[in-house]
């Protein structure tokens, strides 16, 4: 999500971080929804590698912990597993990483 499309007051910086060999260092965010905290539900790249500068400060959300995520009115399905953050719609064809047996491909 572009930074201007996210209500930043609902996000709380997490202590969690990770590193992607392509994109660089990621920081994680908790989402505060009326006092209910969804931990590490989003991540961003504050200083991505040169090839991924378009991602700077954009926020990505895991669909699984949220009640409803849609793309053009279609409810998405979260990508399987707890690592990847993909949003799957009917027009996407797998296989998708994250299902049992998909480690390493």
Description of the structure:
With 105 residues, this protein is an all-beta fold. It contains no helices and 8 strands. The chain has strands at 11-20, 24-33, 36-44, 59-61, 70-71, 74-75, 77-78, 87-88. The protein has a 4-stranded antiparallel β-sheet, with no helix packed on it. Strands 5-6 form a two-stranded antiparallel ribbon. The protein has a two-stranded antiparallel ribbon with strand order 7-8.
List the helices and strands and how they pair.
Elements: E1 11-20, E2 24-33, E3 36-44, E4 59-61, E5 70-71, E6 74-75, E7 77-78, E8 87-88
Antiparallel strand pairs: 1-2, 2-3, 3-4, 5-6, 7-8
CATH level 4 superfamily of the largest domain: Domain of unknown function (DUF427)
Number of helices: 0
Based on helices, strands and strand pairing, what is the structural class? Answer: mainly beta
User: Regarding CATH, which class of the largest domain?
Assistant: Mainly Beta
Widest beta sheet: strand line-up: 1-2-3-4
Mean pLDDT: 92
CATH topology of the largest domain: Metal Binding Protein, Guanine Nucleotide Exchange Factor, Chain A
- Percent of residues in helical segments? under 10%
Q: Quickly count the domains.
A: 2
**From the alpha-carbon coordinates, what is the Rg to the nearest angstrom?**
14 Å
């Amino acid at each position: 999500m572009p930074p201007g499309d996210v209500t930043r007051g609902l996000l709380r910086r997490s202590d969690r971080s990770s590193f992607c060999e392509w994109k660089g260092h990621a920081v994680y965010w908790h989402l505060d929804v009326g006092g209910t905290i969804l931990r590490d539900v989003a991540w961003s790249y504050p200083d991505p590698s040169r090839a991924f500068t378009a991602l700077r400060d954009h926020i990505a959300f895991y669909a699984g912990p949220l009640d409803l995520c849609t793309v053009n009115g279609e409810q998405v399905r979260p990508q399987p597993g707890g690592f990847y953050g993909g949003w799957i719609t009917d027009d996407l064809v797998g296989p998708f990483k994250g299902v049992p047996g998909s480690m390493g491909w």
